[in-house]
Amino acid sequence: MDCAGACRISCGLTDEVAQLFESRVVPLWQGVYDSLVARAEIRPKSRVLDLGTGTGEVALRAAKITGPKGSVVGSDMSKEMIRISEDKARRLGLTNVSFRQMNMEALDLPDDSFDRVVGNYSVCCCFDYRATLSETLRVLKHKGRLTYNHNGPGESLEFQLMLRLLEKYRSKRPSGKLRAIREANALQDRAWSQYRDPFATLNLMRTVGYEFPEATVTQRSVKYRSAQDYVNRLLKLSWKSEAEEMSERTLGELVREALSLLAPFSTNESELVIRDEMIFFTGCK
């Protein structure tokens, strides 16, 4: 499988879960969106590109800051994500933001056209990390700034336990469709996993041409109403394709074991807070 084929598979899966992402994930990530926008230091009248905009949360925040004399472009490969973003912009009455379907590794945008490029957990969805950083540099104006984030070197203990559990229960005889999905996911993971190391990313940013690259490792906290809510989110979003090829009995066993493993991490109120590492990268042209 080549990167183009893997990208088509990834986009198709994203389209399938876009509405669920909007309702189940976006409410949990409000603080992360706010933090990214604050670090980007977006100014009134500026031009901003939101790379891999998803359902538009960062782009919409940026549009409010730039004001009517500025503009924001949100790019994404998912048609359904873009549709949701456009609906939200219309409801908010924002006319200085637009959304376009395009590949972050080959942006259909002119050179030197943005004051800021931002990306919330989007560069980690690429299939060519170097090409993506090169494209963001190309479209930035002189002294423009890139700010983006994604996972850091370590995963939360809770998620590590869940990954081991998935390996135990996932189909040993996957359909052709699931085999292709697994191959696409593995290809994407190989494309960016080494850049969870901030030193590797900073070195690449310098090589590509960014000046004054910086990395800040922080902690991301996501609060779930319960362990059951967390497990349901995994099964309906990240693990959707795997769950679809499990029998009802297998799914039930997986959920029971997952809840047992997560029980020690829940609070007295049954809430589950997942904490993991998040890196913010910045660089200037």
Can you walk through the features of this model?
The protein is α/β, with parallel strands linked by helices and 285 residues long. The protein has one domain (3-156, 176-224, 275-284): Rossmann fold. Helix content is 49%, strand content 22%. The chain contains 11 helices and 7 strands. The protein has helices at 3-24, 30-40, 57-66, 79-92, 129-139, 157-169, 176-192, 198-208, 227-236, 240-244, 248-262; strands spanning 47-51, 71-76, 97-101, 114-120, 140-151, 211-224, 272-284. A 7-stranded mixed sheet has the order 3-2-1-4-5-7-6. α6 packs antiparallel against α11 (248-262). The longest helix has 22 residues, at 3-24. The chain is globular.
SSE diagram, text form:
Blueprint: H1 3-24, H2 30-40, E1 47-51, H3 57-66, E2 71-76, H4 79-92, E3 97-101, E4 114-120, H5 129-139, E5 140-151, H6 157-169, H7 176-192, H8 198-208, E6 211-224, H9 227-236, H10 240-244, H11 248-262, E7 272-284
Helix pairs in contact: 1-4, 1-7, 2-3, 6-11
Defining key terms:
22% strand; Rossmann fold; 285 residues; 11 helices; 49% helix; alpha/beta; seven-stranded mixed β-sheet
